[in-house]
């Protein structure tokens, strides 16, 4: 250990100078700290991009599910496509009245659905007890879809806002890369899901019910229960196709918007 020269004032307490090996060790420790900080700083944008890539398809699929569930055109198309007026004996205006009550039920606080229509000049409750109880489960599922859609949308906006604030124009190349991998993953999922649906939608529809509901109230009589007569399996098959198509269109719009933003602001 070497000692620096001292004067009379500090002769009693000599200054200890670090050796060469100690200096090298301190430099290596400092480099490790600096390297760790730089690595973490580099990883954070990638983590944000990964979160964005995973959340986006979840948001889009659930958003489109919410949209078509609350639409009018899907029900109008379903009545026509599946000849529901002839199958139920209800005119289209009463079918639409029932659909409006279902949409309202999904968005209100009522526990049970009393779907009332004019049947042959008499107003009746169309659904029986088993159908009404199944709709309680369907409502819980749909309200979960609505809630997840809202929160995933908020999370996406938050991730995007943080990226814009911290990275500024550098966020756009990272955003486009995130969109690319998100689109590839979503495309693969839609191809597999769509292929399975095209081959055997009945099996897929049954598995969905097993996973989504803890009881068998969804097992209804297609000849006597109006819920399943109004909404046959074909209705849900085509609704699923519409959700997939809208999701693809949404991805195209978002990618085009991101490229335009990069061109103008990047």
Mind explaining what this structure looks like?
- With 266 residues, the chain is mainly α.
- The chain has one domain.
- Helices cover 75% and strands 5% of the residues.
- Strands 1-2 form a two-stranded antiparallel sheet. Strands 3-4 form a two-stranded antiparallel ribbon.
- Helix 1 runs antiparallel to helix 5, helix 1 crosses helix 6 and helix 6 packs antiparallel against helix 8.
- The longest helix has 50 residues.
- About 2% of the residues have low confidence.
Please state roughly what percent of the residues sit in beta strands, choosing from under 5%, 5-15%, 15-25%, 25-35%, 35-45% or over 45%.
under 5%
- Overall, the morphology is elongated
Most strands sheet: 2 strands, antiparallel
Radius of gyration, taken over Cα atoms and rounded to an integer in Å: 31 Å
Counting DSSP H or I runs of 4 or more residues, the number of helices is 8
- Structurally, the number of domains stands at 1
The share of residues in helices is: over 70%
Distance between the termini: 56 Å
- Please state how the strands of the largest beta sheet are arranged side by side: 1-2
H-E string = EEHHHHEEHHHH
**Helix and strand composition category:** mainly alpha
> Which blocks of ≥5 consecutive residues have pLDDT under 50?
34-39
């Amino acid at each position: 250990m070497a000692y620096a020269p001292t004067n009379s004032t500090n002769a009693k307490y000599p200054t200890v100078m670090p050796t060469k090996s100690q200096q090298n060790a301190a430099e290596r420790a400092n480099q490790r700290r600096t390297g760790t900080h730089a690595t973490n700083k580099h990883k954070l944008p990638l983590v944000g991009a990964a979160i964005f890539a995973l959340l986006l398809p979840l948001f889009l699929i659930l958003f489109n599910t919410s949209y078509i569930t609350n639409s009018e055109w899907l029900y109008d198309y379903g009545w026509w496509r599946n000849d529901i007026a002839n199958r139920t004996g209800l005119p289209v205006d009463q079918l639409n009245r029932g659909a409006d009550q279902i949409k309202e039920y999904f968005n209100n606080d009522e526990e049970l659905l009393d779907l009332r229509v004019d049947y042959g000049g008499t107003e009746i409750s169309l659904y029986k007890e088993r159908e009404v109880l199944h709709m309680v489960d369907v409502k819980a599922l749909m309200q979960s879809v609505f809630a997840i859609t809202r929160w995933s949308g908020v999370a996406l906006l938050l991730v995007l806002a943080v990226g814009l604030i911290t990275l500024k124009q550098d966020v756009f190349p990272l955003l486009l890369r995130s969109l690319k991998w998100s689109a590839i993953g979503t495309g693969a999922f839609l191809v597999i899901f769509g292929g399975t649906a095209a081959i055997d939608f009945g099996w897929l529809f049954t598995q969905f019910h097993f996973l989504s509901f803890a009881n068998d109230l969804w097992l209804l009589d297609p000849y006597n229960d109006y819920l399943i007569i109004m909404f046959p399996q074909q209705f849900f098959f085509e609704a699923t196709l519409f959700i997939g198509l809208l999701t693809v269109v949404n991805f195209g719009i978002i990618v085009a918007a991101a490229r335009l933003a990069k061109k103008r602001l990047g």
